[in-house]
Amino acid sequence: MALLEVSEVTVRFGGNVALDDVHLGAEPGIVTGLIGPNGAGKTTLFNVITGLLPPNVGKVTIDGRNVNRLSPTKRARCGMARTFQRLELFSLLSVRENIRVAADVHKGWARDGSNPAEVVEEIIERVGLTAVADARVDSLPTGQCRLVELGRCLATKPKVMLLDEPASGQSEAETVIFAELLQSLAAGGMAVVLVEHDVALVMNVCARVNVLDFGRIIASGTPSEIQNDQAVLSAYLGTGS
Ligand SMILES: Nc1ncnc2c1ncn2[C@@H]1O[C@H](COP(=O)(O)OP(=O)(O)OP(=O)(O)O)[C@@H](O)[C@H]1O
Ligand SMILES: [Mg+2]
């Protein structure tokens, strides 16, 4: 069983089936991609995994533990962290303060002897925000705000990190650095799930890719398997025969 396991998840909004019998696994040590056209259900799936939205049917497990009945906060304590497609930062706080909030919350749970101030400085350096650490986040461009959300995730020392379009708003140069960062985080033992419209980034960093289309997983495999999958080419890239 994968570290994060999603099985048989179905979500209906009235008559609209946003997710239809979705299965997905994420393993530590790799980046797992989740791609699909606008409205395919990617963010809805993250909302189900993190407990913001109860599914009509289905199960989410971490480390074999069923977390269906746990609140988002309790799931975070189990090692889940996420970023948001529509950034959810404390806009009046600085970069350092935003990450510190998460480090302090984690310290309250973990009582692991770590020093939140030191943890925050390490993270700021790791995600490349040293130059803007004291800036209020509402003064920063979107690309850097996404790094603040990533840093906030890291401050909770997650086992599984769910990133919803984290490169959106980044320049090409920033995306190159970001790709290396994601791979090094996964190499450190985390399970990273990446939702991204930048297909080149997904194919570059993901060991496995899942494709959602109209709420159904239509393909799962390595990047090269996905790039040659006829169903994916026609449904997602629109270039199939
Ligand atoms: N709270 C909601 N109430 C009703 N319908 C919703 C709700 N949230 C999402 N939907 C619908 O569910 C479907 C999936 O939406 P979702 O936001 O998960 O797609 P997505 O794959 O993340 O798209 P995008 O790439 O544009 O972010 C869409 O048809 C959307 O309109
Ligand atoms: Mg979305």
SSE inventory with pairings:
Elements: E1 4-13, E2 16-26, E3 31-35, H1 42-50, E4 57-62, E5 65-66, H2 72-77, E6 80-82, H3 95-110, H4 116-127, H5 142-154, E7 160-164, H6 172-187, E8 191-195, H7 199-205, E9 206-213, E10 216-221, H8 223-227, H9 230-237
Parallel strand pairs: 3-8, 3-9, 6-7, 7-8
Antiparallel strand pairs: 1-2, 1-4, 4-5, 9-10
The structure holds adenosine-5'-triphosphate and magnesium ion.
Adenosine-5'-triphosphate is lined by residues 13, 16, 18, 36, 38-44, 85.
Q: pLDDT average, as an integer?
A: 95
How many beta strands in the DSSP annotation? 10
- The coarse silhouette is globular
Report the structural category: alpha/beta
What number of structural domains do the residues give?
2
Flag low-confidence runs. none
Rounded to the nearest angstrom, the distance between the terminal CA atoms is 36 Å
Biggest β-sheet: strands ordered side by side in the sheet = 6-7-8-3-9-10
Question: How large is the radius of gyration?
Answer: 18 Å
Indicate the CATH topology of the largest domain.
Rossmann fold
Task: Provide key terms for this protein.
single chain, alpha/beta, Rossmann fold, 6-stranded mixed β-sheet, binds adenosine-5'-triphosphate, binds magnesium ion
3D architecture notes:
With 241 residues, the chain is of the alpha/beta class. It is 38% helix and 25% strand. The chain contains 9 helices and 10 strands. The strands form 2 sheets. Strands 6-7-8-3-9-10 form a 6-stranded mixed sheet, sandwiched between helices. It has a 4-stranded antiparallel sheet with strand order 2-1-4-5, covered by helices on one side. A hairpin with a 2-residue loop joins strand 4 (57-62) and strand 5. Helix 3 (95-110) packs across helix 4 (116-127), helix 3 (95-110) packs parallel to helix 5 (142-154) and helix 4 (116-127) crosses helix 5 (142-154). Residues 42-43, 85 line the site of magnesium ion.
